[in-house]
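Risk register update: the risk of archive-format incompatibility is retired. Evidence:
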Amino acid sequence: MSEGVPVIQLPWVAASFRQIAFQPNGDLIAISAYQSIVIWSVETQQQLSRIKFDFTPQVIMFTPDGQRLVILDEPNSFVWKLDTRQDIVVVHDEPLPAGFTRLWPRQPRPERVAALVEEQNWSDSHLESAAMGPQGESIAVGWVLVRRGPDGSKAGLVTIVDLSSGLETAVLEGSKARRLA
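Archived output:
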């Protein structure tokens, strides 16, 4: 360890990191671990708040303005307007706490992913990765679909999701892309 380098001890997540996200201005770090996200102040090296879930978030990212945190996991995905003054508990079947918006609110996965699983005999889908739009208005979410049967073939799909409404605005399937009305 170098002298003068600040060290933040995180004993509760030592073996269970899922993902880490930096707030764009560098003030905060969000750490996803087993059934929680913890928000830390980089300057004070203190935990500011903790969000407890009944699932483990797979992908987390701050919007470019640093005011919202996108929390992705199938079937629970949200946008949280940052409020680090209190700890929060989110249970997927209960009403969301203030400041949370559910993504693709009508079902546990975007409409096109759900339709493909149903129509084409895919046995499963899972969220693979995500990227924030340049202005923080939308995210691109990559999905893997797995086929039933002995071959277990896979296909990829990307959905573009508007963060204000939580709904899909475009879908990219294989070599074709289409904008949803």
